[in-house]
Each structure stands twice: as structure tokens, then as C-alpha cells.
Specification:
Blueprint: E1 4-7, E2 10-12, E3 18-24, E4 33-39, E5 46-51, E6 58-60, E7 68-73, E8 78-83, E9 92-99, E10 107-108, E11 112-116
Length: 118
């Protein structure tokens, strides 16, 4: 059974930075692509970034390219999302996902709130 636990969200001013973490249980973390998704109030959940199982390939939504970086450490079963130059429109609940490189897999974390506001 897979458990994904996100942390690192919070309130930050525009232009600031946050680093989200996702700790995964189980032995299959290294075998699966991982991703970050987000859902703002009144909007559908959307892809933010994904990373291949090895970490070699990454994919970003156009809205976050050049500002966000996804990374992983398979030895630590941990996924990160470094978010820089944050904007108010980045405000959302951010979810960790395990399963596929190009679309959401079956496993989700509980989400962590990111609020960008002055």
C-alpha cells in the first residue's frame, strides 16, 4: 500500500519561494513516475510538473516553467517541488501523485495549501 504525505505549504508573499516535499511509503517509489498537481478554488485540478522514475525526464505546465523545479531522491523516497517567484495565481492546494509521467496515477497525497498573498 502506498502513502504519500505532502508538507511545506504555507503563506508567502508574491515573489517569494517555497519548497514542497512529498514522502512516500513502500518500495515502489523508485519504479514510478511522480507528479505535482494543484487545485485552486472553483477550478479543476491541473498538472504542475511530472518527473520520470529515474529523474532524468521532467515536464512542466507552461505557467510554471522557469519558476518551479521538480526533483526526487529515490534513496529517500522523497519528491520535491521548489517554487520560486511565486504569484498570487499559484495559490492552490498542491497534491503529490504517483503513477504516470503524462497523466495522473492512482495514488494521491492529502494535499498542502499554498497561499501567495501580500
Amino acid at each position: 500500500q502506498v502513502q504519500l504525505v505532502e508538507s511545506g505549504g504555507g503563506l508567502v508573499q508574491p515573489g517569494g519561494s517555497l519548497r514542497l516535499s512529498c514522502a512516500a511509503s513502500g518500495s515502489i517509489f523508485r519504479l514510478n513516475a511522480m507528479g505535482w498537481y494543484r487545485q485552486a478554488p472553483g477550478k479543476q485540478r491541473e498538472l504542475v510538473a511530472t518527473i520520470s522514475s529515474s529523474g532524468v525526464r521532467t515536464n512542466y505546465a507552461d505557467s510554471v516553467k522557469g519558476r518551479f523545479t521538480i526533483s526526487r531522491d529515490n534513496a529517500k523516497n522523497t519528491l520535491w517541488l521548489q517554487m520560486n517567484s511565486l504569484k498570487p495565481e499559484d495559490t492552490a492546494v498542491y497534491y503529490c501523485n504517483m503513477g504516470r509521467y503524462s497523466s495522473p496515477g492512482d495514488y494521491w497525497g492529502q494535499g498542502t495549501q499554498v497561499t501567495v498573498s501580500s
